[in-house]
């Protein structure tokens, strides 16, 4: 089974950023309000995620590390409308097969409570020992790919890997304003984001993560039609080219890279602003979970809409209208 895990690990664990994504999605699924991330050496030495979510009970700790042990799917029908981000039950198993993983968790409000389990590469120490921890979970991943030297060689420079880690962090933090976040790299605080639910929460978070300039040249929109809602910010043509990579699209709170979505946005931009402007945006699409399948691929951020045409038209016409309204003052 450990070998199977290592093979599966190739699917899930491409680089430190993919580990971070899996750990943070678990923390979000656990209902956390605060998530703290500690990284060292571009994640190659350390990736630690600490949350204040529901925790994992003593008996479930070793299970959490075994393959296909998910607590999240009860029936096949549930796959239809998966609200939780994880559903495969193999991320922790995969990660622990290519790193040294420690899980400490407490499901009670007694800060002296808590349990710890450790797994290192092919060796699994299924013994659970007491370890104090506030309610919630800390997952520590050290020495990624220590036992798969070929994969370790594929790691890029610390700076490049940190770039991927920070980008993953941005997407996750943009998906949940109501969660407080801390990101540290090599003992330095890179981001510290307070949780918020008020009207300005989104703007504060967007400028903290994408820079204050993003909003200076962006149009806010919030449009509802055909049972869908599209809201967020799109950059206007005065946007500098340096920000050309700032494209964030969320479907029901999950970051997505989708051809249909990209096409609709590009079309609307091209139509209104000409010159093949590179669109920049932070957009949230909300729709009935039953008409969208977010589980096309575990790691590739793909979606499949039941009625792609309808979604495409809604996105295109919403953006077209919103951008068209500001065009007279900004284009040209
Ligand atoms: P999945 O998320 O697909 O269920 P994982 O391998 O990522 O699979 O996690 C396995 C199980 O471990 C989860 O189903 C969950 O029960 C538990 N778990 C992992 N991380 C956490 C966490 N931070 N808080 C609470 N439970 C967790
Ligand atoms: Mg998971």
Automatic annotation (TrEMBL):
Annotated keywords: DNA damage, DNA repair, Endonuclease, Hydrolase, Nuclease
Family: Belongs to the DNA mismatch repair MutL/HexB family.
This protein's record includes keyword Hydrolase: yes
Residue ranges annotated for the DNA mismatch repair protein S5 domain, each copy included: 206-324
Lineage: Bacteria, Pseudomonadati, Pseudomonadota, Gammaproteobacteria, Oceanospirillales
Superkingdom classification of source: Bacteria
UniProt GO molecular function: endonuclease activity
Keyword Cell membrane: no
Official protein name in the record: DNA mismatch repair protein MutL
Coiled coil: none
Native source species: Modicisalibacter tunisiensis
Function in brief: This protein is involved in the repair of mismatches in DNA. It is required for dam-dependent methyl-directed DNA mismatch repair. May act as a 'molecular matchmaker', a protein that promotes the formation of a stable complex between two or more DNA-binding proteins in an ATP-dependent manner without itself being part of a final effector complex.
């Amino acid at each position: 089974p450990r070998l199977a895990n290592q093979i599966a690990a190739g699917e899930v664990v491409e680089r430190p950023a993919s580990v971070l994504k899996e750990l943070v999605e678990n923390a979000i699924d656990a209902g956390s309000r605060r998530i703290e991330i500690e990284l060292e050496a571009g994640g190659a030495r350390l990736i630690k995620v600490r949350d204040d979510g529901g925790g994992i009970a003593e008996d479930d700790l070793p299970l959490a590390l075994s393959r296909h042990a998910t607590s999240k799917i009860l029936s096949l029908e549930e796959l239809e409308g998966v609200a939780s981000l994880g559903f495969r039950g193999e991320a922790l198993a995969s990660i622990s097969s290519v790193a040294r993983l420690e899980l400490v968790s407490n499901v009670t409000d007694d800060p002296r409570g808590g349990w710890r389990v450790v797994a290192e590469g092919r060796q699994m120490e299924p013994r659970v020992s007491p370890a104090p921890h506030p309610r919630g979970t800390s997952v520590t991943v050290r020495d990624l790919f220590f036992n798969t030297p070929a994969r370790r060689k594929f790691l890029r420079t610390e700076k490049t890997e940190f770039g991927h880690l920070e980008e993953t962090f941005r997407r996750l933090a943009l998906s949940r304003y109501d969660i407080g976040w801390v990101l540290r790299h090599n003992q330095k605080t890179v981001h510290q984001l307070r949780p918020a639910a008020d009207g300005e929460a989104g703007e504060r978070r967007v400028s903290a993560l994408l820079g204050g300039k993003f909003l200076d040249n962006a149009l806010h929109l919030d449009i509802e039609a055909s049972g869908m809602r599209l809201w967020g910010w799109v950059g206007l043509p005065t946007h500098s080219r340096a920000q050309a990579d700032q494209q964030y699209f969320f479907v029901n709170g999950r970051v997505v890279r989708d051809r249909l979505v990209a096409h609709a946005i590009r079309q609307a931009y091209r139509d209104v602003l000409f010159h093949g402007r590179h669109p920049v945006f932070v957009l949230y699409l909300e729709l009935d979970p039953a008409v969208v399948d977010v589980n096309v691929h575990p790691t590739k951020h793909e979606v499949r809409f039941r009625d792609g045409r309808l979604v495409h038209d809604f996105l295109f016409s919403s953006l077209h209208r919103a951008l068209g309204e500001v065009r007279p003052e900004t284009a040209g």
